[in-house]
C-alpha cells in the first residue's frame, strides 16, 4: 500500500480521544519512515513489574484484573510510566473469546490458563458458537478507558489469540507440551477441528472489530502455537483461519486506517506464505534472521511489503546492560537501515521481543534495552 | 561423496558380527538406491510398548535399564520383534556423557531427566572435563551385545546428545520451558558457555567413536534443543560444536564407512547452514517441507548432498490406521520419488517421526505406519 493511498496515523481523529503525539509505531506499521525504530514489548504490562504485582494482588486474580476497567487501565499504563515505549497494548488475555463462549477460563497462581469445560467431543464442538459480544464488554470498556488515559501519548494495540491457538487451549483445556489432544482431534476428525476454527475465526473477527470501534489503533493476532503444527497442517488449520479473521476486519475507523499485525511463534519457515496475508505487519520470533526476512517479505521502496516486528530473545534481558545493548544492536543491524525517505513507503522494523517478557526480568534491564534500541536505531539512520 | 568412493554397507565386515541382511537404511544414508524407503522411529524402544514397561519394571528405573547390558539389549530388540523396522537404535539416553562427568543423572517416575549437580558457576564449569570412558563402559557393552543379538537383521545406530543439548540440561538441571538459566549464562558469560561446549564436544566425539568401535554402524547426534536458540546464537553455540564433534569422528571402522546423522529439532530455518556439516544425513522435524528441503540440501544425482531423515508428526499415530496411511503417504510424496539408479548416488529419504514417539501411542498404530511406509514407498518407485 503506498503512503498516499493510506489514511495515515496523523490524520485527524474524531474528537473522542486526544490527538496522537507519538505516531512512530503506526508509521512503521505502514512502512513509513521514522526517526528511530519504535519499540514495545510483548507482555510489557506483567509480573516483572512490582507495581503490576501490587495491582494484581488488589484484584485478587488475573481475571479479576482483566475484567476490571480501572485495573486493566492502570496496569496497561504502568510500563509507559517507567519506559519511553512507543506503543501500549491492551492488558487482557489471548483466551477471552473462548471464555465468553462459556468454557470457563481461570488462572491458578503460578500456572497458565485453564478451561473448566474443554471441547473434546462432537457434542461440545456442535454447541460452540460466536459468543454474544456483551460478554466481552469488559474488554471494550478497557480499550476506551485506556485510550482516554493515554491522552494521545502513544497508540493503543488491541489483540486476540488466533483461531488455532485458541483451539489448542479449548481442546487441551490448558497448556500442553505435546498438543496430543488437539492434534488427535485434528488428524482423526478434521471436520470437527474445522468447525471449531470457523467459529473461532468469526468470533475473533467480531471481537477485534469491537476493539477497533472502542478505540484500538492497531490490532494483533497472536498465533502462539501455530509453530507446533506440521508443514501442511499449519497452512490448513492455522494460516487459513488467520486469513479468515483478516478478511472480516475493519480497514479503518473514523477515517483512520487500522494496521493489522500477525505473529506466529515458530512460523519462520512459512514466511513466504504469511507474506500473502492481508495484513500490514508480521511478527517474528528470535529464530528468524531479520535481514533474510526483510529480503523475503519486507518489500522494496515504493512497492508493497510487510513491516517486520521483533525479535530479540527475551532471555537477553538477564544479561548485564552493556550486553543487552550489544544484542539489541545486533538485532537492529540484522534488519539493517530502515527506510528513511518521508515521501514514499519502504521496509520498516518495529523492535520487540521474540516472545513475551519473562516474569523474572529485572525492570532496570528493560530500561537499558529501550535506551539501546532508541539510540542505536537513530545512529543507524545516520550512516 | 560418490558411491564408488565410499565403502558401502555391503562391504565385508570383520568376522566379529553376523553379516548384514537388510542394508536399506545404510544405503539410504549414503544416498544409494533402495527398493523401499527405510524407516525407524525415534524412541522406538519405549513406554508405548507393554513389553518395554515390563522390562523397565524389572530393572527398577530408567538408568537401571540403560546400564544393564542384558536389559538394554532386550528392549532395543523389542520393537523389531513387532515391526519390520529397517534399523535398530541403541537403548540409552542423550545425557549419559554429562552423567559420566559426575553430574548425577536420574529419572523420577513420570518426569524427565534431572541432574543432582547442575553446572551454574565458574567453579563448576572449570571442574568439567572429558570423562573417563570407562564410566560409559555399560554403553559400549550394550552396543556390542545388541550387535550380536541382532544377528545382522538390521544395522544398529549409536547416538549422543549434542554439546548444546547436553549443556541445556547440565545448566538447567532438568528440562525447561524457557531455558532461562542456560541462556542467561550464554548471554552474560559466553566464555563459560564456550568452555562447557568444548568439553562436551570432545567428550561426545570420544563417546561416539567408542560406540563405533563397539559395533555401532551409524551414529546420530540429537540436537533436541538447538531450535530454542536465536539466529546467530544457534550457529555460535550449537552448530559450531556439532561440527567440532563431527570433525573428530571416525570415518570408518574395520573397512566399513560409518554414516553420521545430525538432527536439530526446530532447526529448519538453518538447513542451508547445516548442509555444510561434515555428515551424511540431516534429520528434520515435521515443520519442514521435505520437498523444499530436498531442493535445498538433497543434492543432485551423481553430486554431493545430504540424505534426509524424518518427519511425520508423532501425533498422527493417534488417528485411525487409514488416516495414518494417508498422512504417511503425504510425507513420502512431499519428498517425492527417491533416487533409484543403482549405479550412482542421489537424493534419498529415511522415514522417521519428527520427534520421539509418544508413550500413549497404540502399538497397533505403529504397525499401520510401518506397513504404509513400506508399501507406499515401493509404489512411489514404480511411478
How would you describe this structure to a colleague?
The structure is a homodimer of 383-residue chains. Chain A has 15 helices and eleven strands. With 383 residues, chain A is α/β, with parallel strands linked by helices. Chain A has a single domain (24-315, 340-361), classed as TIM Barrel. In chain A, strands 1-4-5-8-9-10-11 form a seven-stranded parallel sheet. In chain A, strands 2-3 form a two-stranded antiparallel ribbon. Chain A has a two-stranded antiparallel sheet with strand order 6-7. Mean pLDDT of chain A is 95; it is low at 1-13.
Radius of gyration of chain A: 20 Å
Uncertain runs of chain A with pLDDT below 50, 5 residues or more?
Answer: 1-13
Number of strands of chain A: 11
Total domains of chain A = 1
SSE order of chain A in H/E notation? HHHHEHEEHHEHHHEHEEEHEHEHEH
What CATH architecture of chain A would you give? Alpha-Beta Barrel
How much of the sequence lies in strands of chain A comes to 5-15%
Shape call of chain A: globular
**Spatial order of strands in the largest sheet of chain A:** 1-4-5-8-9-10-11
User: In CATH terms, what is the fold-level topology of chain A?
Assistant: TIM Barrel
Number of helices of chain A: 15
Largest interface: A-B, 37 and 37 residues
Distance linking N and C termini of chain A: 27 Å
Multimer state: homodimer
Overall pLDDT metric of chain A: 95
- Structural classification of chain A: alpha/beta
CATH class category label of chain A: Alpha Beta
Helix content of chain A: 40-55%
Q: Main β-sheet of chain A, in a few words?
A: 7 strands, parallel
Amino acid at each position: 500500500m503506498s503512503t498516499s493511498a493510506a489514511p495515515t496515523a496523523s490524520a485527524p481523529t474524531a474528537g473522542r480521544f486526544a490527538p496522537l503525539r507519538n505516531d512512530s509505531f503506526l508509521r512503521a506499521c505502514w512502512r513509513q519512515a521514522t526517526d528511530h525504530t519504535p519499540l514495545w514489548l510483548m507482555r510489557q504490562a506483567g509480573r516483572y513489574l512490582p507495581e503490576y504485582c501490587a495491582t494484581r494482588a488488589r484484584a485478587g486474580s488475573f481475571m479479576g484484573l482483566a475484567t476490571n476497567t480501572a485495573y486493566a487501565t492502570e496496569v496497561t499504563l504502568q510500563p509507559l510510566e517507567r519506559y519511553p515505549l512507543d506503543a501500549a497494548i491492551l492488558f487482557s488475555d489471548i483466551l477471552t473469546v473462548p471464555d465468553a463462549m462459556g468454557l470457563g477460563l481461570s488462572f491458578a497462581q503460578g500456572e497458565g490458563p485453564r478451561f473448566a469445560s474443554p471441547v473434546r467431543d462432537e457434542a461440545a464442538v456442535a454447541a460452540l458458537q460466536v459468543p454474544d459480544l456483551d460478554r466481552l464488554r469488559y474488554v471494550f470498556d478497557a480499550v476506551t478507558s485506556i485510550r482516554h488515559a493515554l491522552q494521545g501519548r502513544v497508540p493503543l494495540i488491541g489483540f486476540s489469540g488466533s483461531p488455532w491457538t485458541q483451539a489448542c487451549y479449548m481442546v487441551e483445556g490448558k497448556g500442553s507440551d505435546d498438543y496430543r489432544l488437539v492434534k488427535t482431534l485434528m488428524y482423526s476428525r478434521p471436520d470437527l477441528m474445522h468447525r471449531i476454527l470457523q467459529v473461532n475465526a468469526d468470533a475473533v473477527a467480531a471481537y477485534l472489530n469491537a476493539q477497533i470501534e472502542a478505540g484500538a489503533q492497531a490490532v494483533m493476532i497472536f498465533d502462539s502455537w501455530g509453530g507446533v503444527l506440521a508443514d501442511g497442517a499449519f497452512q490448513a488449520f492455522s494460516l487459513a483461519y488467520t486469513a479468515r479473521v483478516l478478511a472480516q476486519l475493519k480497514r479503518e475507523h473514523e477515517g483512520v486506517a487500522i494496521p493489522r499485525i500477525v505473529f506466529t511463534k515458530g512460523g519462520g519457515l512459512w514466511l513466504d506464505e504469511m507474506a500473502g496475508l492481508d495484513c500490514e505487519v508480521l511478527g517474528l520470533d528470535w529464530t528468524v534472521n531479520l535481514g533474510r526476512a526483510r529480503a523475503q517479505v519486507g518489500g522494496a521502496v515504493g512497492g508493497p511489503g510487510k513491516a517486520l516486528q521483533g525479535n530479540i530473545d527475551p532471555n537477553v534481558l538477564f544479561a548485564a546492560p552493556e550486553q543487552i545493548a550489544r544484542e539489541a544492536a545486533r538485532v537492529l543491524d540484522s534488519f539493517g537501515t530502515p527506510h528513511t525517505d518521508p515521501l514514499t513507503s519502504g521496509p520498516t522494523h518495529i523492535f520487540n521481543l521474540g516472545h513475551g517478557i519473562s516474569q523474572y526480568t529485572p525492570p532496570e534491564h528493560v530500561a537499558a534495552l529501550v535506551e539501546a534500541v532508541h539510540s542505536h536505531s537513530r545512529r543507524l539512520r545516520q550512516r
